[in-house]
UniProtKB/TrEMBL annotation:
<dbReference type="GO" id="GO:0030686">
    <property type="term" value="C:90S preribosome"/>
</dbReference>
<protein>
    <submittedName>
        <fullName>UTP4 protein</fullName>
    </submittedName>
</protein>
<dbReference type="GO" id="GO:0032040">
    <property type="term" value="C:small-subunit processome"/>
</dbReference>
<dbReference type="InterPro" id="IPR046351">
    <property type="entry name" value="UTP4"/>
</dbReference>
<dbReference type="GO" id="GO:0000462">
    <property type="term" value="P:maturation of SSU-rRNA from tricistronic rRNA transcript (SSU-rRNA, 5.8S rRNA, LSU-rRNA)"/>
</dbReference>
<dbReference type="GO" id="GO:0003723">
    <property type="term" value="F:RNA binding"/>
</dbReference>
<dbReference type="InterPro" id="IPR036322">
    <property type="entry name" value="WD40_repeat_dom_sf"/>
</dbReference>
<dbReference type="InterPro" id="IPR001680">
    <property type="entry name" value="WD40_rpt"/>
</dbReference>
<dbReference type="InterPro" id="IPR015943">
    <property type="entry name" value="WD40/YVTN_repeat-like_dom_sf"/>
</dbReference>
<dbReference type="Pfam" id="PF00400">
    <property type="entry name" value="WD40"/>
</dbReference>
<dbReference type="GO" id="GO:0034455">
    <property type="term" value="C:t-UTP complex"/>
</dbReference>
Length: 312
């Protein structure tokens, strides 16, 4: 765990939870991101203007690398938003200047630098084979970098930015790299799974671009005893009475209605805030909803065919 005070803490996973083990070397500067070496011997911690490599056994910092001295006349701070420590000893850093950089951490030298975006690079994920990287930016774009031979059939390889994707409208705060797909999550509440077409052999569900909107909230609640349904929209609620039938049948059959569904009332929320959640009681007598800052409770009175709401 990396902390705001510059410390890195190790916790042991034990049956039933986690247990504090020890503190590693503390240095000035907030710890914004962490990455383990695949062998678990070292941890890289990203901060503002620098990252450092910590030896886990001794708990000491063995290398501290400044990331902003390569920018001419850089007057603003360079935030290291994401890091990855590869098995070769290469540190990959993503920063607020829109760069993805590759460092030899033993020498503290810069091997490669890619300006992938004009805005900040916020997230970073490496494939299991360490030959492919996905990064997410604050413009909603994700970029794919691959380790490719400089010449066809040659042994020398370099990192190349191969594909940009614009699937989000806001910050891409989280990315993951599966063997067959690039996965990204943004502040627009979208989760996007984009298959790597070279890994997919035939047309299938795995070969399709998939977008999921989060969070999933229950937008319909049911008062079983009163046979009422409450529908939640962003600025108002609608209360409906279910239709009824006098026929009987098996599951899945469509029965003729002797009474049609009935729209009883529409309740509009005051103010600009969206309705966050809502519910109707099982007896159908109480109706409540909440925005981000307030909760409203109403009493539902059925007078014959008419319905009235009383604010509680």
């Amino acid at each position: 765990i990396g902390c705001e005070d510059g410390s890195v803490k190790i916790f042991q996973v034990v049956p039933g939870g986690v247990q504090f083990e020890r503190n590693l070397d503390r240095r000035k500067g907030r710890v914004l991101c962490l990455s383990w070496h695949p062998s678990d011997t070292h941890i890289v911690a990203g901060s503002i203007d620098f990252f450092r490599v910590i030896d886990v056994a001794s708990g000491q910092t063995v290398q501290r690398v400044m990331v902003n001295h390569h920018v001419e006349k850089a007057k603003r701070e360079c935030v290291v938003w994401a890091v990855a420590l590869l098995s070769s000893g290469t540190v990959v850093s993503a920063d607020s200047f829109g760069r993805v950089q590759f460092w030899d951490w033993e020498q503290g030298t810069l091997a490669e630098s890619h300006a992938v975006s004009t805005s900040a690079v916020l997230s970073l994920a490496v494939s299991q084979k360490e030959d492919s990287i996905i990064v997410g930016t604050s413009t909603g774009a994700t970029y794919h970098l691959q380790l490719l031979p400089v010449r066809l059939g040659g042994l020398e390889k370099r990192w190349v930015r191969t594909k940009p994707f614009q699937f989000h409208s806001h910050d891409v705060r989280a990315v993951a790299h599966s063997p067959t797909a690039l996965i990204s999550g943004g502040l627009d509440a979208q989760l996007v799974i984009r298959p790597l077409m070279e890994k997919v052999q035939k047309k299938s569900y795995d070969a399709a671009l998939r977008k999921f909107t989060f969070p999933h909230r229950r937008l319909v609640s049911c008062a079983r005893k009163a046979r009422l349904l409450l529908f939640q929209f962003s600025q108002y609620l609608e209360l409906w009475r279910l239709g009824s039938t006098e026929e009987t049948g098996k599951d899945g059959e469509v029965l003729p209605l002797c009474r049609m569904p009935e729209h009883l009332v529409q309740l509009k929320s005051k103010g600009p805030e969206h309705i966050y959640c809502s519910c109707v009681s099982p007896c159908g007598t109480w109706l409540g909803y909440s925005t981000a800052s307030r909760f409203q409770l109403y009493r539902v009175r059925c007078d014959g065919d008419g319905v009235s709401l009383g604010k509680v």
